[in-house]
């Protein structure tokens, strides 16, 4: 496949500045660098085709180059219309990776790019939110014939995959990368926590200290967002539907209440639930003038945008990535990045060192799938613990951290039921 001929990108002339971004990321990804050295020598994916649907920015480019260096032909598309960086896309094409992506495409273009990626007839896929898997099963089963399996990046995607598995509709195995300890403990918590506030702060240029931040959902991403908000000096309120998560948020020192009550108090609202319309009309009517809404879930459905527009007398962009809605009583509600992922649509996404661990998992799980897909069956597989631990060990070694090991006596004691 000729990447330059087949790709659909904004402008190949942007490649030099994209290359600078990718090189910077490589300098801060010790896990991927270690894997790259090994995979370049062994070429375990020689002759394979791999389709990747992820947020197309510099860190994702490093993963794509790693898989290319392992011998595969790689085709990449974006998993969010506002997170694709055109210069990074150009740099990948210049290095032989096929790319179908542009920043802010129309909905039809966005879907077309994903389908075009699947038309390369991949053997393996890396998905984000289940988009590629959904297209293959619901719209283009004719493109599924070579697919051995793949890996899923997000909570949202794994929920969709498990629903397909439960209904007996999943036609190939997928590894739920998001459920690895080396993913959700770091990427979801520290990555989301820092990057969401990076996006909000650079976009609004407003102080957080002393204000009330409402975090809607207290999973691992919500934990991270709440933790960082507290660090910035905010008064943090958590809303939840799960009693255990709500109890945990309470013991972590946060106020917990129904969202209808929190709507009256919040200055900032960040949704991290994976569900739809968790903020809607009844909440808009209760919010303060100037309330700021942001989403950190995969899809732009958590904040009910049609409902907000329907009760507004004016809608205008008042600052890059901020849309202002003026309600009939004159109150203003501000939405960041059209309700899409605030950390990517209004920022650069998770810190590089965090994504180094996540993409280390993706690469190792893809190799595992290639070797074991026939044994797995059509189901969602948890990341094997040895892969999870291996990535954590790579990370520790890269940071000069040593840990203890059990001696023989201790191993025997733990293996025995006798005291």
CATH architecture of the largest domain: 3-Layer(aba) Sandwich
Helix content: 40-55%
Number of strands: 15
Quaternary state of the chains: single chain
CATH level-4 homologous superfamily of the largest domain: Adenosylhomocysteinase-like
CA-based shape: globular
Instruction: Please state the structural category.
Output: alpha/beta
Strand content: 15-25%
What's the tally of helices? 18
Tally of domains: 2
Instruction: Report the biggest beta sheet as strand number plus sense, adding barrel if it closes.
Output: 8 strands, mixed
Tell me the Rg in angstroms. 22 Å
Rounded to the nearest angstrom, the distance between the terminal CA atoms is 63 Å
**Biggest sheet: strand arrangement:** 9-8-7-10-11-14-13-12
Give me the CATH fold name of the largest domain.
Answer: Rossmann fold
């Amino acid at each position: 496949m000729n990447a330059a001929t087949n790709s659909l990108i904004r402008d190949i002339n942007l490649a030099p500045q994209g290359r600078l971004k990718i090189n910077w990321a490589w300098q801060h990804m010790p896990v991927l660098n270690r894997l790259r050295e090994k995979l370049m020598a062994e070429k375990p994916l020689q002759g394979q085709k791999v389709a990747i649907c992820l947020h197309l920015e510099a860190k994702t480019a490093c993963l794509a180059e790693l898989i290319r260096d392992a011998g595969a032909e790689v085709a990449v598309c974006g998993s969010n219309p506002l997170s694709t960086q055109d210069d990074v896309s150009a740099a990948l094409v210049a290095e032989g990776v096929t790319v179908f992506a542009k920043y802010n495409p129309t909905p039809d273009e966005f879907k077309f790019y994903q389908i075009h990626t699947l038309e390369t007839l991949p053997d393996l896929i890396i998905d984000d939110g289940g988009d590629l898997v959904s297209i293959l099963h619901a719209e283009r089963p004719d493109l599924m014939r070579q697919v051995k399996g793949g890996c899923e990046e997000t909570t949202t995607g794994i929920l969709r995959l498990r629903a397909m598995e439960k209904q007996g509709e999943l036609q190939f195995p997928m590894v739920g990368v998001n459920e690895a300890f080396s993913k959700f403990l770091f990427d979801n918590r520290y990555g989301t926590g820092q990057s969401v506030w990076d996006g909000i702060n650079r976009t609004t240029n407003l102080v957080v200290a002393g204000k009330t931040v409402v975090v809607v959902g207290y999973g691992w991403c919500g934990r991270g967002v709440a933790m960082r908000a507290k660090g910035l000096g905010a008064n943090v309120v958590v809303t939840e539907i799960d009693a255990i998560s709500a109890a945990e948020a309470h013991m972590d020192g946060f106020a917990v209440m129904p969202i209808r009550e929190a709507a009256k108090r919040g200055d900032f609202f960040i949704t991290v639930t994976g569900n739809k319309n968790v903020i809607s009309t009844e909440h808009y009517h209760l919010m303060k003038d100037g309330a700021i809404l942001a989403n950190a879930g995969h899809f732009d459905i958590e904040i009910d945008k049609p409902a907000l527009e329907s009760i507004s007398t004016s809608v205008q962009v008042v600052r890059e990535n901020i849309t202002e809605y003026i309600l009939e009583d004159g109150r203003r509600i501000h939405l960041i990045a059209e309700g899409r992922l605030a950390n990517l649509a209004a920022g650069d996404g998770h810190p590089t060192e965090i994504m180094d661990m996540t993409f280390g998992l993706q690469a190792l799980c893809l190799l595992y799938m290639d070797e074991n897909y026939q044994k797995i069956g059509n189901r969602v597989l948890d990341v094997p613990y040895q892969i999870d631990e291996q990535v954590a060990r790579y990370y520790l070694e890269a940071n000069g951290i040593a840990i203890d090991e059990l001696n023989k006596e201790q191993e025997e004691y733990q293996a025995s039921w006798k005291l």
